[in-house]
Amino acid sequence: MSARRTIPYDMFNNGAHGLAAKNAKILERVYHKGHSQAWDGKEVLSSLVAQHGKPTLDKRTQEALSRVFSIIMWGELAAWRISAELADEIEPLEAKMAATSQAFDEARHFYVMHDYLMMLGWEPTKVHWGARRLLEKVMNADHLAKKLLGMQLMVEPVALTLFHVVKELDVEPVLTALLPYYERDESRHVALGVQYLPAMMSKMNAAQRLDLFGFQFELLSYEIATNYWLMRDLQHLGVDPRVMIDVGKTKQLKAMELVLDSLEVKGGYPTRVLERYTDALTELTLPPMGKPVSTFDRLKNAWNAARYGRDSDRSIELVPTISDAQTPLVGSIKAGRQYAEAAYTVS
Prior knowledge:
By secondary structure, this protein is mainly alpha-helical.
């Protein structure tokens, strides 16, 4: 039986929860932005299909795109469930509002991605064990801080990376035009982790923080295992798996650095350890495209990466800048109705 529910009378006392006033204001704005920047998923998808035509791809590309984005679809479902749980269990008003807004967004992301994949002829199947373990690990985490870190600061930055890379490649025009809508929403979602995780961590003891740190290592391992499994599909789509890992890693580290700065943790040691661990696993499992590397050289490169790190492009943005021109139907549920209702079909 679940614990008895009570009215959270101290939800307005942010100081008691470790939430700074400036962070609370940002989270409040996240909620109101989510409301003003909402978009109707069926309207947007039908408009894009009417504009670009129903997605038509060769079988190999269709299979690759379906496998990659089915992971995104199930990830959106996990994010929907986690954000709904956070909205229920987080007490400070502003953070609760931001999580509520995210749950609404994630529900839209899930059904729109499902409908898009059905247009490709995709049938729901189980995802790779690494992706499954990653998502289930976050969903079943034993502390809200782990769920917040896992989803907002680990999974969301990787999704943003994939959206950006695939959009730039323009593999399929409907998807290319759809992804900026996802990017705009996901950029707000990262803010919940960056702004509220410091409040949660400020209430944790040393053992709990160390456990959270270990949790990150486990999630990184599953991410790299999934990337390795998707390697051939990503390469077929024109995506370098190493670039995916490097860009995603940089986004994750930048998010974590913002959290640590709020906690006044100096020196960058935690993020440096995470970065070198990721670099070592990358050298071990993902050699450069088109360049065979012997097992001995992989081990040597992994050892050097663990000791010295690798060069990373630190200019990569944590969240993308998406213009109104890229998302013309944001905030409007009428614009898409200029297209025939029949344009939106999944048969």
